């Protein structure tokens, strides 16, 4: 495997279970909608909601801001087609990773102007030393070093999302076609 394990499967499971219990406690009796940012947060969404034992809805939003291994020099595009109705809902925005912070900051505004009762944020991963836009996530699974990570929903050129762990592409893999031997 050209990927080195950073966060193994059992650690992900345990931490996500903790986060789910916390969310359930804090949102009990509230009209919660979890809005997951496609495509990277699909896996964490599926696992997280099974640890949230209070009623809630889920919604999806598509935002993309990067190509391949780079997160710089592009503009954020939010696809309206899937936008859930968040009027009078307490929204928890869920993304796979907080890098510069641009995606989540833009989406918080995007949801707020659509009449949500409240908007908070959750990320599975937070990369150290990369943030440009000030935003403190309300829930964070793991803080990780500044490396390009894949797996558990996160991709490199649309591959590696299926890995059950979070890993770092080994030296020399970035820039190569993902299926190159
Ligand atoms: P931000 O807007 O915070 O800079 O970027 C967040 C988005 O960039 C994430 O939703 C994710 O799609 C992508 N991203 C940032 N860092 C990584 C990374 O290390 N690996 C992968 N696969 N995607 C990343
Ligand atoms: Mg993303």
Chart the SSEs and their pairings.
Elements: E1 3-7, H1 9-27, E2 32-38, H2 42-49, E3 57-64, E4 77-79, E5 90-98, H3 102-112, E6 118-127, E7 139-144, E8 149-150, E9 166-169
Parallel strand pairs: 2-3, 2-5, 5-6, 6-7
Antiparallel strand pairs: 1-9, 3-4, 8-9
Helix pairs in contact: 1-2
The protein binds guanosine-5'-monophosphate (5GP) and magnesium ion (MG).
Number of discrete helical segments? 3
How many distinct domains? 1
Gap between N and C termini, in Å?
10 Å
**Distinct ligand kinds:** guanosine-5'-monophosphate, magnesium ion
List low-pLDDT spans. none
Determine the CATH topology: Rossmann fold
> Which sequence of SSEs, written as H and E, runs from N to C?
EHEHEEEHEEEE
Radius of gyration: 16 Å
> What best-fitting shape do the alpha-carbon axes yield?
globular
Characterize the main sheet: 6 strands, mixed
How many individual β-strands?
A: 9
Helix content: 10-25%
* Spatial order of strands in the largest sheet: 4-3-2-5-6-7
Strand content: 25-35%
Please give a handful of descriptors for the protein shown.
binds magnesium ion, 181 residues, alpha/beta, binds guanosine-5'-monophosphate, six-stranded mixed β-sheet, Rossmann fold, three-stranded antiparallel β-sheet
């Amino acid at each position: 495997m050209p990927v080195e394990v950073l966060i193994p499967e059992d650690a992900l499971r345990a931490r996500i279970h903790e986060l789910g219990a916390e969310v359930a406690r804090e949102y009990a009796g509230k009209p919660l909608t979890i809005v997951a940012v496609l495509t990277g947060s699909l896996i964490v969404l599926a696992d997280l909601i099974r640890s949230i034992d209070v009623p809630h809805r889920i919604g999806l939003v598509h935002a993309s801001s990067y190509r391949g291994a780079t997160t710089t020099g592009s503009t954020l595009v939010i696809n309206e087609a899937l936008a859930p109705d968040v009027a009078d809902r307490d929204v928890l925005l869920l993304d796979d990773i907080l890098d510069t912070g641009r995606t989540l900051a833009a989406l918080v505004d995007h949801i707020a102007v659509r009449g949500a009762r409240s908007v908070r944020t959750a990320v599975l991963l937070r990369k150290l030393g990369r943030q440009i836009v000030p935003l403190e996530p309300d829930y964070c699974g793991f803080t990780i070093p500044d490396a390009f990570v894949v797996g558990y929903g996160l991709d490199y050129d649309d591959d590696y999302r299926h890995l059950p762990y979070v890993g770092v592409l080994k030296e020399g893999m970035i820039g190569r076609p993902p299926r190159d031997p």
